[in-house]
């Protein structure tokens, strides 16, 4: 980044002068992460990017892109900065000359995470003054790699009326930390996912993906293990995905087509109706338009009625929690789950939020400690 023009690189004034802070940044393009197109990310001082949609103080748990997640403190030195660049095709975050908290004498670390528009992710390491395996993880998690998860609410228990938000990590990629040295780099190439298919035919016949199923209700292709897992279950998509595309395609009878083709030989259903009640082509089209308008009006009336019924139900049952189903992991017999609880400041992050003091175009929030 030192070779780029200053106008192309932005130094984040808050992250460069704080410890255990995270700030939201908008991308200029949709970045595909595990098949989900994201436009906003959260950069943390601790050497990682949080990719989740639901923010919380324990951003280190999962849903991250971590070139080197550790207890870095950019506020220790004026030379330590967190900077980023976005040229429309790739987004680069650089932790520049950052030092470890309480191990500042070990020297400055400089490394990058590069997000390409096509989903490719690159980790670049310029200066690694200390073997990564020697970094203490007691006060802060030490992770290198990628992770994603889906979230949901468990129903309120008999002991508590409060719903518990739970996260289920469904995939993780870990890098061998012994291979991280000065001048090294790692590239992650995204694999095709079921979510990229936008039709039933592609979903079930593509050679790029496996185990995909089509949920016609949601108009979505999925293997059931992604961020939309809860919605996939709520709409009974596992059962619906057992069908074939022919189950969802509306097959018109031959009569519907041949009624507009007067040269077609042989009797048809439509032609039989025309023989019993002769009408002109103009009258036939007028009747057809009237039927369509009547159908649209009926659908709108039904939609309004359902909306009013839903509002009434919500107002009269404010404590009802949506169901959350327990699942089994495809490769293991368990799901590593974590509940968002305050476990002390050493494991939490404070996001830069509105209501603080402005500094270099960013909003500054209080320290979590």
From TrEMBL:
Domain PSI as annotated: residue spans: 193-238
Membrane topology: Single-pass type I membrane protein
Superkingdom of source: Eukaryota
Keyword Transmembrane annotated: yes
Transmembrane regions listed in the UniProt entry: 291-314
Location relative to the cell: Membrane
GO cellular component, one term: membrane
Alphabetical UniProt keywords: Glycoprotein, Membrane, Signal, Transmembrane, Transmembrane helix
Family from the record: Belongs to the plexin family.
Name listed for the protein in its UniProt record: Plexin domain containing 1
Species per Swiss-Prot/TrEMBL record: Amphilophus citrinellus (Midas cichlid)
């Amino acid at each position: 980044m030192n070779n780029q023009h200053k106008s192309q690189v932005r130094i984040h004034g808050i992250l460069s002068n704080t410890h255990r802070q995270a700030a939201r940044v908008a991308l200029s393009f949709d970045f595909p992460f595990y098949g989900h197109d994201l436009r906003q990310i959260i950069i943390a001082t601790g050497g990682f990017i949080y990719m989740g949609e639901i923010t919380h103080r324990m951003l280190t748990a999962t849903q991250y892109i971590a070139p080197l997640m550790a207890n870095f403190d950019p506020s220790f030195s004026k030379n330590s900065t967190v900077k980023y660049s976005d040229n429309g095709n790739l987004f680069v975050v650089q932790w520049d000359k950052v030092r470890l908290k309480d191990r500042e004498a070990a020297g400055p670390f400089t490394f990058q995470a590069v997000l390409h528009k096509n989903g490719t992710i690159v980790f670049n390491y310029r200066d690694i003054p200390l073997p990564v395996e020697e970094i203490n993880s007691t006060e802060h998690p030490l992770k290198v790699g990628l992770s994603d998860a889906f979230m949901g609410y468990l129903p309120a228990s008999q002991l508590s009326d409060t719903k518990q938000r739970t996260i289920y990590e469904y995939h993780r990629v870990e890098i061998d930390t012994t291979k991280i040295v000065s001048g090294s780099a790692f590239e992650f190439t995204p694999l095709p996912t079921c979510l990229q298919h936008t039709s039933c035919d592609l979903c079930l016949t593509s050679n790029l993906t496996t185990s995909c199923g089509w949920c016609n209700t949601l108009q979505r292709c999925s293997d059931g293990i992604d961020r939309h897992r809860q919605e996939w279950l709520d709409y009974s998509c596992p059962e619906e995905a057992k069908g074939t595309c022919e189950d969802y395609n509306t097959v018109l009878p031959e009569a519907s087509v041949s009624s507009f083709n007067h040269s077609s030989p042989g009797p048809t259903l439509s032609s039989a109706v025309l023989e019993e009640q002769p009408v002109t082509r103009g009258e036939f089209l007028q009747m057809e338009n009237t039927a369509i308008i009547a159908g649209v009006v009926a659908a709108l009336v039904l939609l309004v009625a359902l909306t009013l019924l839903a509002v009434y139900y919500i107002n009269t049952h404010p404590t009802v929690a949506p169901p959350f189903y327990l699942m089994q992991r495809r490769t293991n017999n368990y799901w590593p789950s974590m509940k968002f609880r305050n476990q002390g400041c050493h494991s939490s992050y404070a996001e830069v939020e509105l209501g603080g003091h402005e500094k270099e175009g960013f909003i500054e929030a209080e320290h979590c400690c």
